[in-house]
Every structure is written in C-alpha cells, then in structure tokens.
Specification:
single chain, 3 helices, six-stranded mixed beta sheet, Immunoglobulin-like, elongated, four-stranded antiparallel beta sheet, 2 domains, alpha+beta
Length: 179
C-alpha cells in the first residue's frame, strides 16, 4: 500500500498551484498518508510484535524525497490591486527534489522595458518570500514574475511563475491614493 500512497501524494503535489490546493495536500497528508504510513504499521507492529523487513523497506522508500519530481515554481496567492507605496509579502514555492538557487522576484511598471530584480528570502522548506512594493509615481500597472534556477538530474533548468515568463507575467493594478 505504501507505494500507492506515495504515488497518489506525489501526483497531487504535482498539480498544486494555490493555497486551496496546499490545504488539500495538507489534508491528504494528515489523513491518507498518516493512516497508511503511520497508524496501520503501528497497529501491525503491535499485533505482530515487530514489522517484517520488507514492510520497513517499503515504508522507507515511500518517504524518500521525489528526486525526479518536476522542477517548478508557483506563487500560491497573488495580489491584484495595491495602493501607491503599499507593500505586500509575496511567497513562492519551489517544487521538486532538486536544489534551487535563490529565486528572484522581477518587477517593472507599465511601459518600462527593464525588469528590477529582488532576491527572495528562504523562509523554510522551499518557501521563499519577497516584498512586492507598489512604486510611487504615475504608473497604473505593475508586472511581476518569479524565476529560479533548479538543479536536476539532467542539469540546471530555469523555472518561473508563470511558466511563460517573461513573455507573460502577473499584474497588479496600482491605485492612486486620494490626497
């Protein structure tokens, strides 16, 4: 059963893209994974007075990181409106069983050609944070995306959120603050 639980959990992890998906993944972990990979073996151990070696090996394999997982970055919650000068925390999650460079938040105002880069800070467990700051001035729109280089078995790949960045980016409408 352990390999099937692993397959189901990794399959769902591969589609995670919002906080709601993360909540569902946590719920699956707390129920499905805990029941199959913790409570059932604990009951078997109590009944059998130990666990067979094959079962222990299967359990260890089910808990190994997914080194072959897709290298990707996603932003679970994206702001869409900010007042001039307002700041908001922007989180990015880097997925896959690979080592990642520090992701970078890239921003530019409407009409600007160049992107401004801000390194993101590691909060823990592949979750990074940077502040998205609405610039002062006349701009009415701010574009942004996150980019990271991720080491895989096949070499270093670039992953971004959204996937098509920089050709496509996320956007924030900038509101004028009444005087």
């Amino acid at each position: 059963m352990a390999p099937c639980v692993r397959e189901a959990m990794l399959g769902f992890q591969g589609i995670v893209s919002t906080w709601n998906d993360l909540g569902m993944l946590a719920s699956l972990h707390n129920k499905y994974e805990r029941m199959a990979l913790f409570r059932l073996p604990a009951s078997m151990k109590e009944y059998l007075r130990g666990l067979p070696d094959a079962l222990q090996q299967s359990m260890a394999q089910a808990r190994e990181p997914d080194a072959g997982g897709p290298a990707r970055v996603f932003i679970p919650t994206r702001p869409t409106v900010l007042a001039k000068g307002e700041r908001v925390r922007l989180l990015a999650v880097v997925q896959g069983g690979h080592r990642a460079s520090t992701p970078v938040l890239l921003t530019r105002t409407s009409g600007a050609k160049d992107w401004t880069q801000t390194p993101m800070q590691l909060l823990g467990r592949r979750t990074y944070m940077a502040e998205l700051v609405a610039p002062e001035g006349r701009a009415s729109f701010l574009e942004y995306y996150v980019s990271a280089k991720i080491e895989t078995a096949k070499g270093v790949v670039r992953a971004s959120a959204p996937l098509e960045a920089p050709a496509r980016s996320y956007g924030v409408t900038l509101l004028a603050v009444p005087a």
